[in-house]
Automatic annotation (TrEMBL):
Compartments where located: Cell membrane
Transmembrane region(s): 12-40, 60-81, 129-151, 178-196, 224-247, 259-278
InterPro entries listed in its UniProt record: GPCR_Rhodpsn (IPR000276), GPCR_Rhodpsn_7TM (IPR017452), TAAR (IPR050569)
Similarity comment: Belongs to the G-protein coupled receptor 1 family.
Organism: Oryzias latipes (Japanese rice fish)
Keyword terms, alphabetized: Cell membrane, G-protein coupled receptor, Membrane, Receptor, Transducer, Transmembrane, Transmembrane helix
Pfam families named among the record's database cross-references: 7tm_1 (PF00001)
Membrane topology: Multi-pass membrane protein
A GO CC term attached to the entry: plasma membrane
Main localization of the protein described in the UniProt heading: membrane
Name this protein carries in UniProt: G-protein coupled receptors family 1 profile domain-containing protein
Keyword Membrane attached: yes
MF term (GO), any: trace-amine receptor activity
The UniProt record lists the keyword Membrane: yes
């Protein structure tokens, strides 16, 4: 009887390890395809795609670093904020999630100028501005991640949980790295939506070429808004849990917290599929890379469909 009890959990653990390892591989391969596509094909050397590249790098690091750590800790019942390695995992989680949302925020600004102020787009959003956006996004994210580790180490010096550390970890941190940027992005995309609606009503009055460009920009905005929507679906439950955790009378079960954590990590796997579904040129780039044609000739200047 005891042997059966021991075997069943072992089988479940093996299945979970295989499933989570598969998610990690898919996340790494998908985001590598996005990174190689943008880096190799000159058609994709645009400010918008540079920001998508930065987002893909963050998602790639999730697959390489956070997935293995989470696999080890989730299946060994590691409690949050107990032990240095758990703090390191939390730091990587928060750093990369903050980086993702900062990149999404930059992408929303890029889309705002592309759709709402198209005549000013090339002067306002150029490669130099995009580089500054990316550096600032990663810099802020790293500082937030370091702050989480410091706050976690300070907890060890308290007899209980320090009020200031609870405030930083559960209130100020989520507000700065999630809620505030999300509100900004939602406002920007609402403005873009209203402008796009006005453009759609007056599209017959514009030249055919301008109409095609406007349609392309709106499609790109719709795609990136979908990326934002998927991000919110994956991340909002976890951040709500973190925010209200100190106010609950009974602790939230660890399996629930770990499930929400894996829901957030799955976002890094989904983004490449969104690009492939909406963008014909990404599908064409992925096909050239996966088929090995990229090694058979110079396709950097190829016109992607």
């Amino acid at each position: 009887m005891d042997l059966e009890i021991e075997i069943v959990p072992s089988v479940i653990c093996v299945i979970l390890y295989f499933f989570l390892a598969l998610l990690s591989v898919i996340t790494i391969c998908g985001n590598l395809l996005v990174i190689i596509s943008i880096a190799y094909f000159k058609q994709l050397h645009t400010p918008t795609h540079s920001l998508i590249l930065s987002l893909a790098v963050a998602d790639l690091l999730v697959g390489i670093v956070v997935f293995p750590l989470s696999m080890a800790f989730s299946l060994s019942s590691c409690l949050f904020y107990e032990g240095l390695l758990c703090k390191v995992r939390a730091s990587f989680d928060i750093t990369l999630s903050t980086c993702s949302i900062m990149n999404l925020c930059c992408i929303s600004v890029d889309r705002y100028f592309a759709v709402c102020q198209p005549l000013m787009y090339r002067t306002k959003i150029n490669q130099r501005v995009v580089v500054v956006m990316i550096v600032v996004s990663w810099g802020i994210s790293v500082l937030v991640g370091i702050g989480v580790i410091i706050a976690g180490l300070n907890n060890d010096k308290c007899e209980g949980l320090c009020f200031i550390d609870i405030l930083i970890s559960n209130t100020i941190g989520p507000t700065v790295s999630f809620y505030f940027p999300v509100i900004i992005m939602l406002c920007i995309y609402l403005k873009i939506f209203l402008v796009a609606q006005r453009q759609a009503r007056s599209i017959q009055m514009a030249a055919k070429c301008a109409a095609a460009v406007s349609k392309m920009e709106r499609k790109s905005t719709k795609t990136l808004a979908t990326v934002l929507g998927v991000f919110l679906c994956c991340w909002t439950p976890s951040f709500l849990c973190i925010t209200f955790l100190p106010f609950t009378s009974s602790p939230i079960p660890v399996p629930v917290i770990e499930t929400l954590n894996w829901l957030t990590l799955s976002n890094s796997m989904l983004n490449p599929f969104i690009y492939a579904f909406f963008y014909q040129w990404f599908r064409s780039a992925f096909k050239i890379i996966v088929s090995g044609q990229i090694f058979q000739g110079n396709f950097a200047n190829s016109k992607l469909s």
